Sequence to fold (225 residues):
Amino acid sequence: MVSDAPKVVLYRGWPDAGKYVWSPFVVKLEARLRFAGISYTTRAGSLKTAPKGKIPYVEISEDDASASTSMGDSTLIIKYLIEQNILPDLNGRISPTARAHDLALRALMEEKLYFYHMRERWVDNYYLMRDHVLSSLPYPVRVVVGLLIYRNMAPVLHGQGTGRHTRDESIAFRREIWESINDLLVASRAARTDDEPFWILAGSEPTEADCTVFGFIVSVMLCTA
Fold:
């Protein structure tokens, strides 16, 4: 860890600081920063100004620097902060086999489970999601913005494959993933004593997959969206 941490501004897509948001990628990134004791400032941000056109993104600057580094994609942000010796490398101390398992778990959640929940929110429960996420907008504007989001989301889900499944098929796939994650956590918990923390890969320390699991649990089970 560096002695003089840089200034980090996290754009999380939601104006209310101190509250969880429905994006598992935002929650994952915030968890990594908090667990490492890195101070950061949050702002709502905008997809229009985001480096990769998505949330979250960050601006990182040294106290004495006039220029800042702007980055998008939570995984790339974490890799950059590790390379800059700002965050600890959680996966640097585990075996190649464990790193492969860690990567597979993260891909399962971020490349499959994420889309099942996006379908659940923006297709199967469109009106509930629209009226919650866009609650600060006047109703006529909310209808238009919600329709734009849906029109952008539907082709993505169809091209990715999730949109081609029936609602029941999507629910079954989603349940299968969560049950598998639960089985891993139950097995890891059973191998530890009552007062010890437990991790998804059953190791003695957390890995990147634990932060991803935390992000999805918070996003799906705690966030009100």
In short: The two ends are 35 Å apart (CA to CA). The longest strand covers residues 7-11. The chain is about 55% helix and 10% strand. The CA atoms of residues 76 and 82 lie 10 Å apart.
